[in-house]
Amino acid sequence: MYSNKDIAIVILNWNGKHLLEQFLPSVLEYSEGAKIYVADNASTDNSVEFLKTSFPEVGIIENSENGGYAKGYNEALQHVTEPLLCLLNSDIEVTENWLDGILTAFNSEAGPDILQPKILDYKDKSKFEYAGAAGGFIDKYGYPFCRGRIFDSIETDQGQYNDITDIFWASGACFFIKNEVFKSLKGFDESYFAHMEEIDLCWRAYNSNYKTQYVGASTVYHVGGATLSNTNPKKTYLNFRNSLITLVKNADNNVFSKALIRMLLDGIAGVRFLFQLKPLHFLAILKAHFSFYLNLKSVLNKRRQLPKRHSYYKTSSIVWSYFIKKNRSF
């Protein structure tokens, strides 16, 4: 049976001293017994010195460079031996007893290998938060969506997702995974740098017959965009590039027709950005597609080495459902 002492909470940090100062106290207060680490991605803002002085009880792992989310965690988690890992964003406020529901799920018969809690918006705690909400799914063409959030439509938390249920992907904002499973999957794909790497990992986990769950009895609050804002074209680039790579790496069959349709839909999204007077986001999608072409050989090599499973998607097209049928909630 797992207990708090079996959990390693690992917070990745890059020049986020102000976030550690604001949010680390809640993690320490409400995670008694768990081991807490900060994995520092070669910060230049004296985060490490601040931690040593202000939070000496926190373990510090100093990465050699800023390799982003994927490489940063891959490097840091080599030093962590606890059987349960919690990959926690530095802009998360946790709540009292937040680990109780997590442990109940992991200790249940046929429990999950990966899970996430309910993620609400720190700035409006009645709303779900964009990055994960109440658990993630994916459509036939690789577009991710969540219970509680489809594209930019965010639901109010009215207890509708106070359940425990299987999901397709768990949010990297607060991502629990068995250490042995993380290692068996060889961690995150470091070519992603940031964004969508947790969906790729969960897809590979699904294809290897691991289970991912959502636990509504545990709640955290996420600021979101503290590292890279939704208004930043770099985020658009990473999301579109990495989503397309994830689809081609992991989808079961007819992958090239799916990728072609996906790229056409991306093109429509780009035109929409132009009408919204956001030309830099349009250019970010073009750049994402060119990067995909340049890396296609590598992506196909990875695809050949990975197992596949059918029925990975919840709906054929979330784009059709949302924009044509006007369905705004899960």
State the separation between the terminal residues, measured CA to CA.
34 Å
In percent, how much strand structure appears in the residues? 15-25%
Strand/helix succession = EHEHEHEEHEEEEEEEEHHEHHHHH
Count of extended strands: 14
Helix content: 25-40%
How does the overall form come out from the CA principal axes?
Answer: globular
- Rg for CA atoms: 19 Å
The major beta sheet can be summarized as:
10 strands, mixed
The SS-based structural class is alpha/beta
Low-confidence stretches: none
Number of helices: 11
Mean pLDDT over all positions: 96
Explained architecture:
39% of the residues lie in helices and 20% in strands. The protein is α/β, with parallel strands linked by helices. The longest helix has 21 residues, at 255-275.
What's the layout of helices and strands?
Elements (H helix, E strand, L loop, with lengths): L6 E7 L3 H14 L4 E6 L6 H8 L4 E4 L5 H9 L7 E5 L3 E3 L3 H10 L6 E8 L2 E5 L7 E3 L5 E3 L2 E2 L2 E2 L9 E3 L7 E5 H6 L12 H11 L4 E11 L10 H18 L4 H21 L3 H16 L1 H10 L12 H7 L6
Give a nutshell description of this structure.
The protein is of the alpha/beta class and 330 residues long. The protein is 39% helix and 20% strand. It has helices at residues 17-30, 47-54, 68-76, 98-107, 179-184, 197-207, 233-250, 255-275, 279-294, 296-305, 318-324, and strands spanning 7-13, 35-40, 59-62, 84-88, 92-94, 114-121, 124-128, 136-138, 144-146, 149-150, 153-154, 164-166, 174-178, 212-222.
